[in-house]
Amino acid sequence: MKLRNKTGLALALLLPHLSVFLLAQAKPNVPPQYQRLFCQYADRRQFYEKALNSVGLTTLPIGRGYALIAGVTQYPNFAREDQDLKPAAVDIEKLKSYLKDQEFFDEIVVLKDGDMNLDNLNYFLQVYFPERLKSSPHARFLFAYSGHGYAEGASDTARGFLLTSPAVSKTDPVNRIDLSLLRTLLDPDILSAEKVLVLINACQSGAFLGRKPFGASPIGPGDRGAHAIMASRSNQQSLQLSTVGPGSVFFEKIFAGLEGAADKSPPDGIVTYHELDAYLLSEIPYATNGTQIPMDGDISPNGSVGEFFFLNRSRQVQVKNAKPWNPGSASAFGNAAADAFERGNTAYLDRRYDEAFRLFLEAAKAGNADAMSYVASMYDNGMGGVSQNSEQALQWYEKGAAAGSTDAMLNLGKKYSEGYHVTRNVQQGIQWYEKGAAAGNAMAMYNLGYMYEHGEGTLDYQQARNWYEKSAAAGEAIAMYRLGGMYEHGEGTQDLQQARQWYQKAADAGVISASERLKQLPQ
After folding, report:
1. What is the Cα 241 distance to its own chain's centre?
2. What is residue 242's predicted lDDT score, i.e. its pLDDT?
3. pLDDT per residue as tens digits for the range 58-74
4. How far is the CA of 94 from the CAs of 75, 87, 308, 329, 330, in angstroms?
5. How far apart are CA 331 and CA 14, in angstroms?
6. What residues contact residue 119 under an 8 Å CB cut-off, 6+ apart?
7. How is residue 221 annotated by DSSP?
């Protein structure tokens, strides 16, 4: 089994949430398909209480911290140079690390790439977190997003959208989530938590605050409140500047503010929403020469009288509650990992397999998802100076898939559906193809179509045609050819005109067999 050759960097550079990474013995009481989305599940109130007490804040209520981190780091259907959104990858990994290790959050769910979809958002925002928040007095809830977005309409009435991983363009009208819908999904959490903060880094994200914010001025962190800060206004781009950091300007400045720079009014050991907001409104326009201006608002339906707050990280390090935090090491994606993968990819294409394996392994250990998939493939085929090792291959494919590599998902589907160095399990193969397809992998879509067409699992010509059409729309020429065949031979519906059109598309895309079939079709 070979991975299709790539040029340039791979997709899904970050965030290995690695199945379920839980620090407590208990597991979240959720259906199995959602358990792997937790990167933190433990009651850490004793650490949080110690952190507050150590800076003299003994009167603040001690509640649990819950967070949903969402984002898209790879858009496989974009032009190759736009497929990787590296700053979002950095943002997500830093958020996960910071909330867990520096802010002592109890539960953190991560929806990344293919997992950042409406079904998962609906479950966690409408079902899971509202129940957890209702049962947790003084709870804090943070929603953070980083990825592509866009807005339509005039700036004061604009509709905004977040693009999901299968998007085919930066203004895709289908593969998107309406910000007004996201705001509605958040309503139960806003009503259930004592303190809520929404942070969204996406181009033109100010449309989230389309309706006029309302509510009284907050009087302190000990009362109820819900606020939002958008990275930019509804007519502005959200930027990444190497002079600011590898992540987005928005989140890089947030982390700088939480380091202590925003703890100004008063400098008491915590950073409130208003302190952070004031810091961002000052710093981001300065860093971007006024081209990006954050937008804030009160999103409580009854008006906020309190506000969300973070710990001042530098103060916690001083009193030895928190270890020094290295944002570079927090990022599984990083310059070293990306560079190693790029050099490994070049060596692989040049057939210098020993060198390629060494570099892929280096990048994989640093968290590069598609490097994990390459390592797995080379173990599977005994390449690069390593013996064929099915166990190692399976482990690295699973790691790569958990970290977001759609090629790893595709190859797990192939292994199980074909019984390649594993016990054949067609249903498991289909499940992995479905994960890859949901994340935008065109070949996974094609393989699903093939299995439905040939009755591997279930014979269903309509499903086969649907998956072939999705794969063809994503640019897979062999799917165009198979559609031509289905229409020619009447698998479902015979339509020679449709067959001719699909064969022509496949031929134009370079499929020689399609040209031959065109010659044999009756005119």
Report:
1. 21
2. 83
3. 777 788 999 999 999 99
4. 20, 11, 19, 9, 6
5. 7
6. none
7. T
Q: Are 13 and 92 in contact (CB under 8 A)?
A: no
For helices 406-418 and 442-453, angle between their N-to-C axes, nearest 10 degrees: 20
3-state secondary structure of 504: helix
Q: How many Å from the N-terminal Cα to the C-terminal Cα in the chain? A: 40
- Percentage of the chain modeled with pLDDT above 70: 89
What predicted TM-score, i.e. pTM, was given to this entire model?
0.61
Cα separation of 344 and 17, whole Å? 24
DSSP letter string over 24-63? SSS--SS-HHHHTTEEEE---HHHHHHHHHHTT--SS---
Question: In whole angstroms, what is the distance from residue 519 CA to residue 507 CA?
Answer: 11
Conformational region of residue 150, where left means phi above 0, alpha means psi within -120 to 50, and beta covers everything else: beta
| The pLDDT of residue 255 | 92
HEC states along 104-128?
CCCEEEEEEHHHCCHHHHHHHHHHH
- What span, in angstroms and rounded, lies between the C-alpha atoms of 149 and 208? 11
Is-contact 447 414, C-beta < 8 A?
yes
Residue 455: partners with Cβ closer than 8 Å, 6 or more residues away: none
In this structure, which amino acid lies at residue 383? M
User: Is the pLDDT score of 19 beyond 80?
Assistant: no
- Cβ distance 111 to 70 under 8 Å? yes
Structure-token pair, residue 369: 């998802």
250: helix, strand or coil? helix
Please, which residues bridge with residue 143 across strands? 68, 198
What gap in Å lies between CA 249 and CA 243, rounded to an integer? 9
Q: What is the pLDDT of residues 451-479, one digit of tens each?
A: 999 999 899 999 999 999 999 988 889 99
Bridge-based pairing state of the strands 309-311 and 270-272? antiparallel
**pLDDT, tens digit, 9 for 90 and up, residues 254-273:** 999 998 899 988 888 889 99
Q: Which residues contact 289 (CB under 8 A, 6 or more apart)?
A: none
* Residue bearing tokens 């013995």: 25
Q: Rounded CA gap, 523 and 300, in Å?
A: 66
